[in-house]
Amino acid sequence: MVVDDIANNIAIASQVVKRMGHRFIEARSGEEALEKFLAESPDMILMDVMMPGIGGLEATRRIRQAAGSRWLPILMVTALTREDEILEGLQAGADDYLTKPLSLPVFQAKIQVFARIAELQQELSRHSAELSAYYRQAEDERRLGARLMAYMVNREGLDDPALRYRVTPAWHFSGDLIAAARTPGKCLHILLSDGMGHGLPAAMASLPQFDTFYAMTELGYGIGRIVEVMNSRMHTMMPQGRYAALTLVSINPAMGTIEVWNGGNPYPRLVDANGKIVKHWKSRHVPLGVLPPEEFSAELEVYSYEGECQLFLWSDGLTEAENADGEQFGAERACATLESAGPEHRFETLIQALDAHRVGTLADDITVLMAAVPAPGTMVQPVSHVADAEHGSDGLRMSFHFEAQDLKNLDVVPALSGVIERIAATKEHAGQVFLILSELVSNALDHGLLRIDSSLKTNSDGFATYAAHRQSALEELQEGFIDIDIEILRRDNRKMAKITVRDSGPGFDWVARSQMSETGLYGRGVELVRRLSLEMQYIGAGNEVVVYYELSPASHAIGSNPGHLLMQ
Q: Which of 254, 376, 501, 516 is the right S-S partner for 440, CB 3.0 to 4.6 Å?
């Protein structure tokens, strides 16, 4: 748009503009310039300063105000050459100026310069709009991802009273993820995953683990089998190069054991009541998702603990957190902090020491989790419910037969847990029945068919030896079977579950196994079943055992039954 009250000046300028291929708009006054700017929205304005009515300076101010944030080049045309007058034009909103008489080559060059700038501005505006759209989409995806992650992570298992934890993300999402759940037998399973990288991509690398963890824990599978399935799913589902450091823990308070699989995470530490770190578990495996299933090892470390303890897990964000001098918090400082505090304050003391040490923006996600470990022999009780004695199920009987190949490829008791929970009479007692079946089937397989001697477990290191012998013997097993019968009946006017487990082996020394060893590291299983049941009978050489479990509400707690041990 050319603004001038002299027709000849407009005619000359219009010829230059048209020859250069641009559309020409004319205005004869400041008022008309403002009207046509609002109506036509020109890309560039050539504004004469000296005009009647609203002069060029005032028209420039009003047009600049109307344009807002839009980029609009305005060239002032003036016969004035004093510096203060030129400055006044620039302050009014002009971008450049031309002097009269108008030099057509200079005018043409100015148009070319501002045309190039205008093209760049338009390109920037397009990019800005695309970035805004991308940002809105990213925010929508972030909110959706946050809800998905909250659903996956914030399961009720993390509300377990035995747990304390804090997850501090370095970005919107934490690549550190935790989960916890109890098996039907009330073992506490804990997962700590640290996905490669940060934010949502790191968190997504851990998602295939969660459904597997919760579903298999609910059915009673051990963490060795769980981690095998996790690795297989992750290796199949995730792109190459995506992996997650993982720690899986199973705390069995009834048996007084802790099982750990650690692939790439800092060592979990077990602290006793006196503040001594009595055990740590090194990372003996590569992170999850690195190896294909045929190369993956699910070998566990098993530790038999004594007395009440506290188990601490953390991600490498804790040890690598830096202070103002670039000094890392470190594992030694973390352990010294744990040893300096009493049991009731250890978790808070560690968190306070970490917060006092680190400064600035987090370089990595930080996760800290503590699990209270009860004394061995403790049975974690489910919420008490009164069983419905009139609810059908009397006279119900189920039988299961498992051949050698079944026993090699199937975890028997978890496979039956769904059945146990769906029988009306046993539903409220599923945890106790699960424990009894687990121990009886384990004895039948380990000592009846595989013929492994429990005395291998003479110390904590013996658990690893025992596990290696068991795995080797199971791989070589070619024949044999285990039969399981579950019958709901009434005996002495009390509702009972009669559980019978028999194996095809030659039997084993059930008398010896009814006595706990001097170290207390084996014999716990038989003692546990004895305490849970109303009556336990070994038949013949010990390859058949019958347990009567009372289904009345009064018989739930360990130690509440006389637990007679009989031979027939």
A: 501
